[in-house]
Design brief:
Length: 477
């Protein structure tokens, strides 16, 4: 998400030359090879960065999946409803590791159907997914070679979730990403200031944490890339005191070396400013995009960012959380985010049996219906450079590199819809997406663009309309 520097390859060439000169007595070809593969991914050129981010910027809408042993208690431990987000039940309920492991031993999602999940993403108009390969509780959803605390070795289910889901996603053309927690409440070498009670950390904690990174976290991350070819690494839990800025930069470099075109969020490093999620500017932090959590940036941003949000009030499944947002709110969030240049990562928390809750399925399907008609204003779009909105009920987008503009109304308009911030091309036609025919319009500099909406059109606005998209040829001002 940081602004990229323009660098030339001369630095690289210089280092190759120096290497070659300085190692007369060694195997020169090996040295040369090492020098060539050692690309500094922390100083990528703007052009390379744009190329790597292209699919993600066009995608706009993805599914977040929080799934693990916490779906088994589903918010209730020993008969007590535990406050807070469901996937934090181990910490909030002060559940000892050995006791929490019993939830993993009972995790048997026999109804899990990877194809159905991938199809739901597709039907919802989502272009990518990010699933919890490992959340803070330390449990791995795949068959990890460096751990037995995983889906295959530790549960009665015994099958690899990431394998099934990554394959199904590829079938449906959905990019596959993984969420991986740096904080780990289960690993004995990673518990300094977290699960054991936020105490001050010691030198020994730091040494152990470094060993955990090298011997456990990095090997696991490597498995995500080599076995499932993950397209996104979405780190979290980076705030633990043991984890340092230098380790964050090294982790970024490590992941990019394994898969140069992978995309990595900013929680790989220590730059994030709280829940607002964008980086501080006091240092050069690693990471490709900012991560507002449960909020949307107030203003448009020229940096890359993605808002992750829940549909109710939890990420991991809680049996008694019924506080669902309306489809209208979710569609409006998507429009708001896209008009400000961001992506929307919308969460589902499947049950222990392997089902995505019905209220989530309904909302996603309804969003998909809206996108089937209005998607051309969302995907491959660009924000307006000057004004992303007009008042609170109109948002703007445009198709990248064209003069196709979109004005999206979040409420039912009046019979004359007046739009500022754009000049239509003379004699061009204006349409309301999903409705046949052209609309009458006129334009003058003082009042702007006026689109005339006939009564029979207006009366068609109903509860499942959510928003109307007007397609205009012209330029923004
Ligand atoms: O996975 C979901 C949550 O379980 C996880 N992130 C989403 C995507 C999450 N972990 N913690 N929280 C959410 C809330 C924790 C906030 C805090 Fe902090 C951590 C407060 C202080 C440390 C983040 C870092 C906000 C301020 C600093």
């Amino acid at each position: 998400m940081k602004r990229r520097k323009r660098i030339t390859t001369s630095l690289l060439l210089l280092s190759i030359l120096l290497m070659t000169l300085s190692c007369k007595n060694q195997d020169k070809s090996q040295e040369l090879q090492d020098a060539v593969v050692k690309v500094d991914y922390l100083n990528e050129s703007e052009a390379d960065f744009d190329k790597r981010m292209a699919w993600w910027r066009d995608a706009r809408f993805g599914m977040f999946i929080h799934w693990g042993p916490y779906a088994v208690p589903a918010g209730t431990h020993k008969g007590e409803k535990i406050k807070g987000i469901g996937e934090w039940i181990m910490e909030r309920g002060k559940i000892p590791i050995a006791e929490y492991e019993n939830y993993a031993r009972a995790f048997n999602p026999v109804d899990f159907n990877a194809d159905a999940w991938a199809k739901l993403m597709k039907d919802a108009g989502m272009k990518y997914v990010v699933i919890t390969s490992k959340h803070h509780d330390g449990f791995a959803l795949w068959d990890s070679k460096v751990s037995s605390y995983d889906m295959v070795d530790f549960t009665p289910y015994g099958k690899d979730i990431l394998k099934q889901l990554s394959e199904a996603c590829r079938t449906y053309g959905i990019k596959f990403g993984t969420y991986h927690s740096i904080m780990d409440w289960h690993h004995p070498m990673a518990q300094g200031d977290t699960y054991t009670g936020n105490r001050d950390i010691t030198e020994e904690d730091k040494i152990e944490f470094e060993a955990y990174l090298e011997q456990y976290l990095k090997p696991q991350v490597k498995e995500l890339i080599t076995a499932y070819d993950t397209d996104i690494l979405w780190f979290d839990g980076e705030w633990v005191k043991e984890f340092t800025h230098d380790q964050g930069k090294a982790l970024y470099q490590y992941v990019r070396e394994l898969k140069p075109d992978i995309i990595i969020n900013n929680r790989v490093d220590k730059g994030r400013q709280g829940m607002q999620g964008m980086n501080k500017e006091d240092a050069d932090y690693a990471g490709d995009f900012g991560t507002p959590e449960q909020e949307i940036l107030e203003q448009a941003s020229s940096l890359d960012w993605e808002s992750c949000m829940t549909m109710n009030d939890t990420w991991g499944f809680k049996s008694y959380d019924h506080n669902w947002k309306s489809t209208s709110t979710l569609v409006h969030n998507l429009i708001d985010i896209v008009s400000k240049g961001g992506n929307y990562l919308l969460n589902v928390g499947p049950t222990a049996e392997g089902l995505i809750p019905e209220p989530s399925v309904t909302r996603l399907t309804e969003m998909g219906s809206w996108l089937a008609v209005n998607g051309e204003a969302i995907y491959n779009s660009q924000r307006f450079q000057n004004n992303f909105k007009q008042g609170e009920s109109i948002r703007f987008t445009k198709t990248k590199g064209t003069n196709t503009l979109y004005a999206i109304t979040l409420e039912k308009p009046e019979s004359v819809l007046t739009i500022k911030h754009m000049v239509p091309e003379p004699n061009s036609s204006i349409q309301l997406l999903g409705h046949p025919g052209d609309l009458e319009w006129d334009y003058n500099e003082t009042s702007g663009l006026s689109i005339h909406l006939p009564e029979d059109l207006l009366s068609g606005w109903n509860d499942t309309t959510y928003a109307w998209t007007f397609k205009i040829t012209g330029k923004e001002i």
